[in-house]
Write a structure and sequence with these properties.
Layout: E1 4-8, H1 13-27, E2 34-38, E3 54-57, H2 73-92, E4 96-99, H3 101-110, E5 113-115, E6 120-129, H4 131-135, E7 145-152, E8 155-158, E9 163-169, E10 172-179, E11 183-186, H5 194-203, H6 215-221, H7 232-241
Helix pairs in contact: 1-5
Protein name: Glutamine amidotransferase
Organism: Microbacterium alkaliflavum
Keywords: Glutamine amidotransferase
Length: about 240
């Protein structure tokens, strides 16, 4: 089988390693079948798409809507590398699934409006599929409404005409979209479980996702409701695109 790739941007080892472990668990892939590239440390490889089955993008601390002077040299490099990759991925309609930071990379490439209009605190929210989402082959096993983990400062407020809206939540209208037939992006985290998001809450406590006195409230928020459905799409993605 041709391998899949996970593109990651987390500089902290523990959440980075847990993210990779969660993608392995929920995709069902072995380490030899899921190549991890930590873009905060290394340049984007010049991938030959013909040698891959698909690409995943995990979450991360970067925000596409930050003013250019606020972006570190690492973030600027990562964004430039993603633009180059996505120019080939979108043109080829190559299998791609970006989660959280991944929705920002694809959205920015397509010219979507990304701003601070629809942030969501770290929590569990109800996500509802659109009619297009219900008909999408990646989501065929999902209920119309399901709970999902979120936590983001920015979001897409206006999708470009080339994108198909697949899912929304009450506090964030763009939770998932598709471009072409095979390029997907989610605002929510399909790869997370309670233990994984708990690690991230502690790792990013000083990053402005919640106030310094809200740690316990945030930990309680991710236990508000069970989250079991989103990870299904990772296994479905692999089953659909492995080659």
């Amino acid at each position: 089988m041709k391998p899949f790739v996970l593109l990651a941007t987390r500089a902290e080892d523990r959440p980075a390693d847990e993210e990779y472990a969660l993608f392995l668990r929920y995709t069902g892939l072995a380490e030899s079948e899921l190549i991890r590239v930590r873009l905060e440390a290394d340049r984007m490889p010049d991938f030959d798409l013909d040698t891959l089955s698909g690409i995943f993008v995990g979450g991360g601390p970067f925000n596409a809507s930050d003013p250019p002077p606020m972006k570190s040299l690492v973030q600027q490099r990562v964004e430039s590398d993603f633009d180059a990759l996505l120019s080939r991925v979108v043109a080829a309609d190559f299998p791609f699934l970006g989660a959280c930071y991944g929705i920002g990379t694809v959205g920015a490439f397509l010219g979507a409006t990304i701003d601070r209009t629809y942030p969501e605190p770290i929590s569990v929210v109800p996500v509802t599929l659109t009619e297009a989402g219900l008909a999408d082959p990646l989501l065929f096993s999902m209920p119309r409404e399901f709970e999902a983990f979120v936590g983001h400062k920015e979001a897409i407020s206006v999708l470009p005409p080339s994108a198909v809206l697949l899912a929304s939540s009450p506090t964030c209208p763009v939770q998932m979209f598709r471009v072409g037939q095979n390029v997907y992006a989610t605002q929510f985290h399909p790869e997370l479980d309670v233990e994984g998001i708990t690690t991230r809450i502690h790792a990013y406590a000083g990053y402005g996702y919640f106030a310094s006195d809200e740690l316990d409230l945030t930990l309680a928020a991710v236990r508000r409701a069970p989250v079991s459905h989103p990870s299904r799409m990772l296994r479905t993605f692999v089953e659909r695109y492995r080659r």
